[in-house]
């Protein structure tokens, strides 16, 4: 078992600051925060970028790729470094990146365009909204989440993306045998996610609940940054049990982690 050392904290951006800096309007899957409606937005004219309007409510994302193929999703792709490497390593796979950060989507598309990589598409959507509304049942070969916002304050922990409700949504979207890769620099987050397992429907693919090094796994921008600082990373790999019988015909509801006005309180699938 690996000893968990609390990571020395680097200055990190706060999601609420991102919202107020880069959003000109609420995005699909509005997290419930009061979003600034003005502010700078970088226009993205890359053919790899798929505007949310293009995806009709309930339309699944396979239509945005111009070919059939296994589908993999990176949630919170940031500036696209990981996604680009994965797309090059696995040209047969269709990679979808999503991020709520407009500038991140812009940079991801720009890098992929400059590299001439074709098997990437980028959407700017809240992850749970995307999974609940635009991913077909049991259609994802893999889901990658690298260095998600750690929400370090105790009172904010329920805002963390990965929790038991989220795992149920993943089980709905992952194909049998599909993999869930998770990496964090934050010991407390790693511990919290490790405690969600064993979870019915998932099988650990590692000898330990998590490891500090995952051979052949490309680095994201944040992972690189933490490595440079000699800070530990925690990797988890779970796969969806091939024997698992999915009970849901529709995506399971994921409660919103954010406080909302009473009339809007409810579940993601209904409120977004
Ligand atoms: C700390 S950054 C890490 C970026 C990248 N994965 C990396 O490792 O370099 C977290 C990213 O997740 C995005 N993000 C946070 N919550 C999200 C959500 N609910 N849905 C989609 N993206 C989200 C943020 O905008 C940010 O770009």
Task: Describe what this molecule looks like in 3D.
The chain is about 25% helix and about 15% strand. The protein has a single domain, classed as Rossmann fold. With about 270 residues, the chain is an alpha/beta fold. An 8-stranded mixed sheet has the order 1-4-3-2-5-6-8-7. It is globular. It is built from 8 helices and 8 strands. The protein binds S-adenosylmethionine. S-adenosylmethionine binds next to α1 and α7. S-adenosylmethionine binds near residues 100, 127, 147 and 161.
What topology does this entry show?
Blueprint lengths: L14 H8 L26 E2 L20 E5 L5 H9 L4 E5 L3 H14 L4 E4 L3 H8 L5 E7 L17 H10 E11 L2 H8 L7 E3 L16 H8 L5 E7 L27 H4 L1
Parallel strand pairs: 1-4, 2-3, 2-5, 3-4, 5-6
Antiparallel strand pairs: 6-8, 7-8
The protein binds S-adenosylmethionine.
């Amino acid at each position: 078992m690996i000893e968990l050392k609390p990571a020395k904290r680097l200055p990190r951006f706060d999601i609420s600051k991102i919202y107020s800096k880069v959003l000109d309007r609420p995005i699909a899957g509005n997290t419930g925060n009061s979003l600034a409606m003005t502010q700078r937005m970088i226009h993205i004219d890359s053919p790899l970028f798929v505007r949310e309007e293009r995806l009709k409510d309930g339309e699944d994302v396979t239509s945005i790729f111009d070919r059939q193929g296994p589908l993999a999703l990176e949630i919170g792709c940031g500036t696209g470094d990981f996604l680009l490497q994965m797309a090059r390593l696995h040209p047969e796979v269709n990679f979808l990146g999503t991020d709520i950060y407009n500038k991140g989507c812009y940079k991801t598309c720009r890098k992929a365009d400059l590299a001439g990589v074709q098997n990437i598409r980028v959407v700017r959507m809240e992850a749970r909204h995307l999974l609940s509304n635009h991913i077909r049942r049991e259609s994802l070969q893999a889901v990658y989440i690298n260095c998600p916002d750690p929400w370090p304050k105790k009172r904010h922990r329920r805002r963390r993306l990965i929790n038991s409700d989220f795992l149920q949504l993943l089980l709905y979207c992952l194909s049998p045998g599909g993999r869930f890769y998770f990496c964090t620099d934050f010991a407390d987050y790693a511990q919290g996610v490790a405690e969600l397992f064993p979870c019915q429907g998932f099988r650990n693919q590692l000898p330990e609940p998590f490891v500090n090094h995952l051979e052949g796994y490309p680095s994201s921008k944040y992972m690189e940054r933490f490595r440079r600082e000699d800070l530990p990373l925690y990797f988890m790999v779970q796969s969806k049990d091939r024997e698992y019988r999915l009970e849901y015909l529709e995506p399971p509801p994921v409660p919103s982690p954010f406080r909302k006005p009473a009339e809007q309180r409810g579940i993601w699938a209904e409120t977004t």
